[in-house]
Design a protein that fits this description.
single chain, about 120 residues, mainly beta, four-stranded antiparallel sheet, about 0% helix, about 50% strand
């Protein structure tokens, strides 16, 4: 397992940007896929994007073209750059492996987009 600490969330107006960070307690180089997930109130947690150790990325249709996932294996950190934010992006954002390690969710970081 690995401890993951998300940060960078906040309140932003629609159209704004945020950059989320996910710091891992150990090397993530050996984790083939790292992902960002989100959970809005009353909804199930969903996968937003994932990235391989080589840098290949995949995005949910709802964020494609607006979000960019990246990873820095040397810093054991995964990032999510979010541009052109919409109110429907409001959620708690989490990082984890993909598929996720069971019982390995951090506290997440709240993103709130106002209209």
């Amino acid at each position: 397992q690995v401890q993951l600490v998300e940060s960078g969330g906040g309140l932003v107006q629609a159209g704004g940007s945020l950059r989320l960070s996910c710091a891992a307690s150990r090397s993530i180089f050996s984790i083939p896929f790292m992902g960002w997930y989100r959970q809005a109130p009353g909804k199930q947690r969903e996968l937003v994007a994932h990235i391989t150790s080589a840098g290949t990325t995949t995005y949910a249709d709802s964020v494609k073209g607006r979000f960019t996932i990246s990873r820095d294996n040397a810093k054991n950190t995964v990032y999510l750059q979010m541009n052109s934010l919409k109110p429907e992006d409001t959620a708690v954002y989490y990082c984890n492996a993909y598929p996720p390690f069971v019982n390995n969710w951090g506290q997440g970081t709240q993103v709130t987009v106002s209209s």
